[in-house]
Write a structure and sequence with these properties.
139 residues; alpha+beta; Alpha-Beta Plaits; 7 helices; globular
C-alpha cells in the first residue's frame, strides 16, 4: 500500500465538479484515507507553496488557492506506484496537453486553473499529507 495527496482546487468546487472528481478517483481504484473541506488562509497557502516563492506565477497561485473552498485528500491504493498512477489519472499540468479522459482534460481550464493538484513524488506526498493531516505521520 502506498499514498498520495491531492487537492480539488477552487475552480472545480465553484464549477460543481467535486463529486464527479471524487467518483473518478474511487472508480480508478484509489481509496480516500482522509478528506477535509478547507479554506486556505494566505499564510497556509504561502507555507504550502513556499517552494514556488519568487516564481512569476507565485502570487497568482496564492490568490487563486485562497479564493474559495478546496478539498484536501489523503489517498491510498494497493499499488506500489500510487503517486505515479494518480498523476496518470489527473493528467498533465496543462489541461490542453492532458490525455483525453483525465481529470484535468475534463475539468481544467488552463495551467493556472487546472482543477486538481496531485503530489509529484512519494516524499512530497508524505510532506503534503502531513501538512494537512498531521495525525497520520506518513513517512
Amino acid at each position: 500500500m502506498s499514498y498520495t495527496f491531492s487537492i480539488i482546487k477552487p475552480d472545480s468546487i465553484k464549477n460543481g465538479h467535486e463529486q464527479s472528481i471524487l467518483r473518478r478517483i474511487n472508480n480508478a481504484g484509489f481509496s480516500i484515507l482522509a478528506k477535509s473541506n478547507r479554506f486556505l488562509t494566505k499564510e497556509e497557502a504561502e507555507e504550502f507553496y513556499g517552494i514556488h516563492k519568487g516564481k512569476p506565477f507565485y502570487e497568482d497561485l496564492i490568490k487563486f488557492m485562497t479564493s474559495g473552498r478546496i478539498v484536501v485528500l489523503a489517498i491510498y491504493s494497493t499499488s506500489k506506484n500510487t503517486v505515479e498512477d494518480f498523476r496518470k489519472l489527473i493528467g498533465e499540468t496543462d489541461p490542453k496537453e492532458a490525455a483525453v479522459g483525465t481529470i484535468r482534460s475534463l475539468y481544467g481550464k488552463d495551467v493556472g486553473h487546472n482543477a486538481i493538484h496531485g503530489a509529484d513524488s512519494d516524499q512530497n506526498a508524505a510532506k503534503e499529507i502531513n501538512f494537512f493531516f498531521p495525525d497520520f505521520k506518513i513517512e
